[in-house]
Write a structure and sequence with these properties.
Elements: H1 11-34, E1 43-44, H2 46-52, H3 59-67, E2 74-76, E3 79-83, H4 84-93, H5 99-114
Antiparallel strand pairs: 1-3, 2-3
Domain Helix-turn-helix: 43-94
Organism: Spirosoma fluviale
Protein name: Helix-turn-helix domain-containing protein
Length: 121
């Protein structure tokens, strides 16, 4: 990207041009997703997974998680493989809710109870 200074008079034309570029990129992304073009899923070895995970846990720690079936994995013979999309979902499932999210969930639950959300027996 160029580091040219834009004058105040050039700003409207620059914004219009920028808007066109954003529209073009949006259309390109939309067309690729409609055609089924997606980023291929990456497979990790246990060593690569150790580097990918936050905190870079030791390989022996990961072997323990595999043994206790705490982490999604695939096995081909004696080789372990980990699909990035499965690992990302696994990481997200362990996410702790914020206080605001818990409060909102509680408020939603209570508002449903006040509206007669209970079933009569």
């Amino acid at each position: 990207m160029e580091n040219t200074l834009i004058t105040f008079d050039q700003l409207p034309a620059f914004v219009v041009d920028l808007g066109r570029k954003v529209d073009d990129l949006t259309a390109l992304l939309r067309s690729q997703s409609e055609r089924g073009h997606s980023i291929p899923d990456r497979w990790f070895s246990i060593e690569e997974l150790s580097e990918y995970l936050p905190g870079h846990p030791a390989v022996t720690t990961l072997y323990g998680k595999v043994q206790r079936r705490e982490i999604p994995f695939s096995r081909k013979g004696k080789r372990l493989a980990f699909r990035q999309s499965d690992i990302d979902l696994w990481l997200q499932s362990g996410r702790v809710k914020t206080s605001a999210e818990i409060d909102a969930q509680a408020e939603h639950y209570l508002s449903n109870q006040r509206k007669g959300g209970r079933k009569a027996r």
